[in-house]
Amino acid sequence: MTTDPGDDPHVRLLLGAYVLDALDPEETCRVARHLRTCDSCARDYVETAEASLLLALLRAEDLGE
């Protein structure tokens, strides 16, 4: 899903994949560049990264049925 940054100025939809290192190199660079200049997306990135870390702490028994 490579797009011209001018077509889509924000990267929120890519943040989950970015946190999980699941983007192709071009998209990774695009998101990294954008995060350096957009406080709003940078805040969303921090929240996404924190959520990912918290989810990694869950154990199967924490989820219950």
TrEMBL record:
Domain of life, per lineage: Bacteria
Cited InterPro entries: Anti_sigma_zinc_sf, Znf_put
Putative zinc-finger domain: residues covered: 11-42
Pfam families reported in the protein's UniProt record: zf-HC2
Assigned keywords, A-Z: Transcription, Transcription regulation
Protein name: Zf-HC2 domain-containing protein
Origin species: Streptomyces cavourensis
